[in-house]
Amino acid sequence: MKAKKADRTKTNVISDNFSVMESAIDLSMQEEYFKFEKTIDFDNMHLKNVLMESKKLFFESTPIESKKRILILLAHLGTPESYTTIEKYLKVSGQDFRNWVLLALKECRMFLESSLLGEDAGIISTGLGGKGNKLRNYFIISSKNDSPFSREQEEVIEDKFGIASHKFNVEVEKFIFRENCSIIRILVPIDIAVGKFIEAGIKECSDFLFFHYYVTNVKEPSNEEILGYLEEIKAKKKESTPTKIR
User: Fold this and answer.
1) How high is the pLDDT of residue 201?
2) Whole-model pTM?
3) Is 11 part of any domain?
4) Concatenated DSSP letters for 110-138?
Protein backbone atom coordinates (compact mmCIF):
# COMPACT_ATOMS: atom_id res chain seq x y z
CA MET A 1 0.00 0.00 0.00
CA LYS A 2 1.31 3.40 -0.92
CA ALA A 3 -0.09 6.56 0.60
CA LYS A 4 0.56 10.14 -0.33
CA LYS A 5 2.32 11.58 2.65
CA ALA A 6 1.23 14.86 4.18
CA ASP A 7 3.58 17.82 3.97
CA ARG A 8 4.49 19.16 7.40
CA THR A 9 6.10 22.55 7.92
CA LYS A 10 7.79 22.85 11.31
CA THR A 11 9.32 26.01 12.70
CA ASN A 12 11.51 26.09 15.80
CA VAL A 13 10.03 22.90 17.25
CA ILE A 14 11.58 22.20 20.66
CA SER A 15 11.00 18.77 22.28
CA ASP A 16 8.07 18.91 24.70
CA ASN A 17 7.39 22.65 24.82
CA PHE A 18 5.57 23.66 21.68
CA SER A 19 2.28 25.06 20.47
CA VAL A 20 0.23 24.21 17.41
CA MET A 21 -0.82 26.94 14.99
CA GLU A 22 -4.59 26.55 15.16
CA SER A 23 -5.56 28.81 12.25
CA ALA A 24 -5.53 27.43 8.73
CA ILE A 25 -2.98 29.61 6.96
CA ASP A 26 -1.73 29.02 3.43
CA LEU A 27 1.82 27.65 3.45
CA SER A 28 2.98 30.25 0.94
CA MET A 29 1.97 32.98 3.42
CA GLN A 30 3.85 31.19 6.21
CA GLU A 31 6.95 30.88 4.02
CA GLU A 32 6.75 34.58 3.17
CA TYR A 33 6.45 35.48 6.85
CA PHE A 34 9.46 33.44 7.98
CA LYS A 35 11.53 34.58 4.99
CA PHE A 36 10.76 38.21 5.85
CA GLU A 37 11.69 37.48 9.46
CA LYS A 38 15.21 36.49 8.43
CA THR A 39 15.84 39.96 6.99
CA ILE A 40 15.33 41.70 10.35
CA ASP A 41 18.08 42.54 12.82
CA PHE A 42 16.66 41.67 16.23
CA ASP A 43 19.91 42.29 18.13
CA ASN A 44 19.37 46.05 18.22
CA MET A 45 15.67 45.86 19.08
CA HIS A 46 14.51 48.04 21.97
CA LEU A 47 11.17 47.70 23.73
CA LYS A 48 10.26 51.40 23.85
CA ASN A 49 11.24 52.02 20.23
CA VAL A 50 9.20 49.08 18.93
CA LEU A 51 6.14 50.01 20.98
CA MET A 52 6.37 53.61 19.77
CA GLU A 53 6.69 52.45 16.17
CA SER A 54 3.76 50.09 16.60
CA LYS A 55 1.40 53.10 16.58
CA LYS A 56 1.98 53.24 12.83
CA LEU A 57 0.05 49.98 12.46
CA PHE A 58 -3.17 51.92 12.91
CA PHE A 59 -2.37 54.56 10.26
CA GLU A 60 -3.80 53.84 6.82
CA SER A 61 -0.88 55.72 5.27
CA THR A 62 1.68 53.25 6.66
CA PRO A 63 3.04 51.02 3.83
CA ILE A 64 2.13 47.34 4.12
CA GLU A 65 5.79 46.30 4.18
CA SER A 66 6.37 48.54 7.20
CA LYS A 67 3.39 46.98 8.96
CA LYS A 68 4.77 43.50 8.28
CA ARG A 69 8.09 44.48 9.83
CA ILE A 70 6.46 46.11 12.88
CA LEU A 71 4.33 43.04 13.55
CA ILE A 72 7.35 40.73 13.46
CA LEU A 73 9.26 43.04 15.80
CA LEU A 74 6.32 43.05 18.21
CA ALA A 75 6.15 39.26 18.02
CA HIS A 76 9.82 38.90 18.91
CA LEU A 77 9.50 41.23 21.88
CA GLY A 78 7.30 38.59 23.45
CA THR A 79 5.91 40.93 26.13
CA PRO A 80 2.35 41.40 27.41
CA GLU A 81 2.37 44.89 25.85
CA SER A 82 3.42 43.68 22.42
CA TYR A 83 0.90 40.80 22.54
CA THR A 84 -1.90 43.20 23.45
CA THR A 85 -0.92 45.54 20.62
CA ILE A 86 -1.00 42.77 18.00
CA GLU A 87 -4.30 41.50 19.41
CA LYS A 88 -5.76 45.01 19.18
CA TYR A 89 -4.58 45.42 15.59
CA LEU A 90 -6.04 42.03 14.65
CA LYS A 91 -9.52 43.42 15.35
CA VAL A 92 -9.11 46.17 12.74
CA SER A 93 -6.83 44.54 10.18
CA GLY A 94 -8.23 43.80 6.74
CA GLN A 95 -9.04 40.25 5.70
CA ASP A 96 -6.17 40.15 3.19
CA PHE A 97 -3.66 40.92 5.95
CA ARG A 98 -5.29 38.94 8.75
CA ASN A 99 -3.18 35.77 8.37
CA TRP A 100 0.06 37.74 8.72
CA VAL A 101 -1.26 39.26 11.95
CA LEU A 102 -2.30 35.81 13.22
CA LEU A 103 1.20 34.48 12.59
CA ALA A 104 2.69 37.39 14.52
CA LEU A 105 0.23 36.89 17.38
CA LYS A 106 1.03 33.18 17.61
CA GLU A 107 4.77 33.81 17.52
CA CYS A 108 4.48 36.56 20.14
CA ARG A 109 2.61 34.18 22.42
CA MET A 110 5.34 31.59 21.91
CA PHE A 111 8.08 34.04 22.95
CA LEU A 112 5.99 35.29 25.87
CA GLU A 113 5.38 31.77 27.19
CA SER A 114 9.04 30.93 26.68
CA SER A 115 10.03 33.92 28.78
CA LEU A 116 7.55 33.13 31.55
CA LEU A 117 8.51 29.44 31.67
CA GLY A 118 12.23 30.14 31.41
CA GLU A 119 12.72 27.63 28.61
CA ASP A 120 12.63 27.49 24.82
CA ALA A 121 9.33 27.02 23.04
CA GLY A 122 8.35 26.36 19.45
CA ILE A 123 5.56 26.36 16.90
CA ILE A 124 4.28 23.51 14.76
CA SER A 125 2.48 24.90 11.75
CA THR A 126 0.67 23.37 8.77
CA GLY A 127 -1.63 24.72 6.10
CA LEU A 128 -4.75 23.34 7.79
CA GLY A 129 -3.86 24.36 11.33
CA GLY A 130 -4.96 22.38 14.35
CA LYS A 131 -6.24 22.49 17.90
CA GLY A 132 -4.41 21.95 21.17
CA ASN A 133 -1.68 19.41 20.44
CA LYS A 134 -3.45 18.05 17.35
CA LEU A 135 -2.95 18.78 13.65
CA ARG A 136 -5.81 18.89 11.16
CA ASN A 137 -5.75 16.49 8.20
CA TYR A 138 -8.04 15.49 5.36
CA PHE A 139 -7.94 11.99 3.96
CA ILE A 140 -9.76 10.21 1.15
CA ILE A 141 -10.79 6.56 1.15
CA SER A 142 -12.65 4.75 -1.62
CA SER A 143 -14.67 1.63 -2.31
CA LYS A 144 -13.35 -1.49 -3.95
CA ASN A 145 -13.94 -1.63 -7.69
CA ASP A 146 -15.53 1.86 -7.54
CA SER A 147 -18.76 0.37 -6.23
CA PRO A 148 -21.18 2.93 -4.72
CA PHE A 149 -21.38 2.94 -0.92
CA SER A 150 -24.65 1.76 0.55
CA ARG A 151 -26.10 3.65 3.49
CA GLU A 152 -25.17 0.68 5.70
CA GLN A 153 -21.55 0.87 4.53
CA GLU A 154 -21.42 4.60 5.27
CA GLU A 155 -22.62 3.86 8.80
CA VAL A 156 -19.97 1.15 9.17
CA ILE A 157 -17.25 3.62 8.09
CA GLU A 158 -18.45 6.16 10.66
CA ASP A 159 -18.62 3.48 13.35
CA LYS A 160 -15.24 1.81 12.68
CA PHE A 161 -13.30 5.05 12.30
CA GLY A 162 -15.07 6.27 15.43
CA ILE A 163 -13.73 3.28 17.34
CA ALA A 164 -10.24 3.82 15.91
CA SER A 165 -10.41 7.50 16.88
CA HIS A 166 -10.77 6.56 20.56
CA LYS A 167 -7.83 4.18 20.33
CA PHE A 168 -5.51 6.80 18.79
CA ASN A 169 -6.98 9.88 20.55
CA VAL A 170 -8.01 11.27 17.16
CA GLU A 171 -10.90 13.69 16.79
CA VAL A 172 -13.09 13.12 13.73
CA GLU A 173 -14.50 16.50 12.73
CA LYS A 174 -16.38 15.68 9.55
CA PHE A 175 -17.42 12.88 7.19
CA ILE A 176 -18.24 13.75 3.59
CA PHE A 177 -19.65 10.88 1.55
CA ARG A 178 -19.74 10.71 -2.21
CA GLU A 179 -20.93 7.85 -4.35
CA ASN A 180 -17.79 5.72 -4.06
CA CYS A 181 -15.49 7.63 -1.70
CA SER A 182 -15.39 9.50 1.57
CA ILE A 183 -13.43 12.64 2.50
CA ILE A 184 -12.82 12.77 6.23
CA ARG A 185 -11.46 15.68 8.31
CA ILE A 186 -9.61 14.77 11.50
CA LEU A 187 -7.44 16.18 14.27
CA VAL A 188 -4.44 13.94 15.02
CA PRO A 189 -2.04 14.23 18.00
CA ILE A 190 1.40 15.22 16.76
CA ASP A 191 2.95 12.12 18.31
CA ILE A 192 0.63 9.80 16.36
CA ALA A 193 1.37 8.78 12.77
CA VAL A 194 -1.78 9.69 10.86
CA GLY A 195 -1.33 6.66 8.62
CA LYS A 196 -1.68 4.25 11.55
CA PHE A 197 -5.11 5.64 12.37
CA ILE A 198 -6.30 5.60 8.75
CA GLU A 199 -5.02 2.09 8.10
CA ALA A 200 -6.63 0.79 11.29
CA GLY A 201 -10.00 2.11 10.12
CA ILE A 202 -9.61 0.75 6.61
CA LYS A 203 -8.65 -2.66 7.97
CA GLU A 204 -11.93 -2.84 9.87
CA CYS A 205 -13.82 -2.14 6.61
CA SER A 206 -11.59 -4.26 4.37
CA ASP A 207 -14.48 -6.17 2.84
CA PHE A 208 -15.60 -3.07 0.90
CA LEU A 209 -12.84 -0.42 1.24
CA PHE A 210 -9.79 -0.26 -1.04
CA PHE A 211 -6.59 -0.36 1.04
CA HIS A 212 -5.14 2.87 -0.31
CA TYR A 213 -5.66 6.46 0.76
CA TYR A 214 -4.76 10.08 0.15
CA VAL A 215 -3.91 12.31 3.13
CA THR A 216 -2.88 15.94 3.43
CA ASN A 217 -2.53 18.65 6.06
CA VAL A 218 -1.74 21.38 3.53
CA LYS A 219 -5.26 22.36 2.43
CA GLU A 220 -8.74 20.96 1.89
CA PRO A 221 -8.68 18.79 -1.25
CA SER A 222 -10.40 20.46 -4.19
CA ASN A 223 -12.92 18.63 -6.32
CA GLU A 224 -10.28 18.37 -9.07
CA GLU A 225 -7.75 16.84 -6.65
CA ILE A 226 -10.30 14.32 -5.38
CA LEU A 227 -11.28 13.25 -8.90
CA GLY A 228 -7.61 13.16 -9.91
CA TYR A 229 -6.75 10.85 -7.01
CA LEU A 230 -9.68 8.53 -7.75
CA GLU A 231 -8.66 8.38 -11.40
CA GLU A 232 -5.05 7.67 -10.40
CA ILE A 233 -5.94 4.58 -8.36
CA LYS A 234 -8.33 3.05 -10.88
CA ALA A 235 -5.55 0.99 -12.42
CA LYS A 236 -4.44 -0.22 -8.97
CA LYS A 237 -7.98 -1.39 -8.24
CA LYS A 238 -8.06 -3.38 -11.47
CA GLU A 239 -4.71 -4.97 -10.62
CA SER A 240 -5.97 -5.98 -7.18
CA THR A 241 -9.20 -7.54 -8.50
CA PRO A 242 -8.95 -11.37 -8.48
CA THR A 243 -9.34 -12.99 -11.90
CA LYS A 244 -12.41 -15.18 -12.10
CA ILE A 245 -11.73 -18.75 -13.23
CA ARG A 246 -14.43 -20.09 -15.50
Assistant:
1) 96
2) 0.63
3) no
4) HHHHHHHHTS---EEE-TT-EETTEEEEE
